[in-house]
Amino acid sequence: MIIPALASALALAAPAAGEDAQAVVAAPMAAVSTAEGVISYPPDFFSGSQPANAHEMLLRLPGFSIETGAKIRGFEGGGGNVLIDGQRPTSKTDDLEEILRRLPAGQVERIDLIRGGAPGVDMQGKSVLANVVRKSGAGFRGLFAVANNHIYDGRNLYGVRLELSGGNGGRNWEAAARYGMGMDDGAGQGPHVKVAPGGRELFRSQVDSEGDGGVSTLTGAYETPLLGGKARMNARVAWDDFKTEETDHVTLPGPDTQVFADVSNRFDTEIGGLFTRDFGARTTLELVGLRQTRDQDIDSSFHGEGFDARFGLSRESSETIARSVLKFRPTAQVSLELGAEGAFNALESQTTYAENGAVVELPAANVEVEEKRGELFAKAIWRPSSRWTLESGLRYEGSAISSDGDVRVEKTLYFAKPRFAASWAPSAATQVRFRFERVVGQLNFDDFVASSTLNTGVIQAGNPDLNPEQAWVSEAAVEQRFLGDGAAVLTLRHSALTDVIDRRPVFAANGDIFDSRANIGDGTKDELILNVTLPLDRFGGKAMQLKGEGTWRRSEVTDPTTGEDREISGLQPLEWEVTFTHDLPQLRANWGLDVYGGWRETYYRLSEVEDRKLKTFVRPYVEWRARPDIIVRVEVANLTKRGFRNTRTVYDGPRSLNQIAYVEDRDIQVGRMYYVRIRKTFGA
After folding, report:
1. What is the DSSP annotation of 46-79?
2. Does domain 5-273+287-304+322-683 bear CATH number 2.40.170.20?
3. pTM score
């Protein structure tokens, strides 16, 4: 699946609370800079674009791009770059963008852009954060929305959303129910060929594939005064069913029909809680508790003339987290933070694989993994003057991991993770930022168990005996504000890597060789990132804005098969996107164009090199406010009919010793999609 399509293609935005009582303002109110290095944006700044929720407001924030956070175990260090009332959302399975979509624009008092750090703010390891500050005393509000995505091949994938919220006197509640269908935009139609080194075709077929499914989600939250502080509880359950079907009509070497099917069913639960209490004007205590589970079953099959294969995976995982943080602000310029966190993770997985009815043993096919993780951390922020902000911190983590089943491993890991960051503002329009930090990744439990992609013939063994990847990261950034609400940020980042996790061969007991994730040594990664927000008013484009972000990436590691230097598997050398928006408040409308650049990523295995290429995705859209409480959105997704190309260069054996046997190429084309959404808000 190229884009997690189950919610992205048919995401229904959240309600615009109170906006029906607001007049559309053609000229936005200017942002306000503060002495704390924070730029505050009031609701009127966004009024021309008629935002319905906090997510749509953040998309217009100059010099800022939403980051949803890392998918890691534990809580510390995994947050995105958006806070709500100064707090990170306690949910881990509920996507940050979905949380922001459920926050009505009418409930937003302002959005603070925190650049380079500020006393009393946990920067979550980021150089820039956005803090969405809510109004107090919201009344009852609701939203009902329906959408349909008409796919080029005739399918109609619909979505429906109902959201309710309310409260007063410090007691607030919210509830939401959503069902959305989505598609795999890496599935479609196109040729599949295998060519020998001399150019002779060994295999040719025409691929006809599609993937789609639905996600049902129920969420709820309640916050109330408690024991002199404030408590918030949240809960979420989700059902995710997805299927992929593919038929290859083979014409060479002879007529044949190959059929591939993949069915995935997943059930997630989560319950979390946050308690905060102030002890005087300078001290705050935060307590976080969270419990989540995920059960998943996958059944994959391949049938062709003379060959059948079947892969099955059943897994259950859970995570329990307890966390406490004590914040102290001795002066207006200094803030201190001490905290501790503990987490328990468990995974139980059973894998089966058979060829022509004969069972094939996979390394680490059936495993049970447990992890006990603890972390202590201390942070300090000092603002010695209006131009300087200094931040330092130390996190120390320890984890005990054990694996039973096919592979028995026990290991204990300890890592110290120091961090230093500084920002300097020589003028109100310019800021220079620097960061030096030790970053320690986490072991992905998915790497512990076997997996497969039967339609490309790739079987990957599991490997529980991994060490987390570590990096010393040096980063420098320059931000320049111009033309009122224009901004440009240039970031240069260098990572010196240890225990790089990539791919190497493993040998089964019967002598079969499989590809597996493994530590392959040291490496480097360099990134150059440019983020630009350009208002076009001074160029004749009234109420127009152009935003773009691009990342150029270069990496290097020693290939364990050839001994030569190469890039790290799966890292994209170039990522970019551009968004154009034009507000037409006199017509109660806005329109725009989203362009997501194509990318390439390469995977290096023992006897093959795989290139994955995704072409450029273009999406024009129009939003029209038919009434103060009804917004209609129409968009044409994949205007360029982008496709996905997968090329495998396969060798006769290890790449270091053998010649190329053949090159396999799958060039899958995907057509346009026509999306319509109607959103109705109600309430005070």
Report:
1. GGGG---BHHHHHHTSTT---------SSSTT--
2. yes
3. 0.86
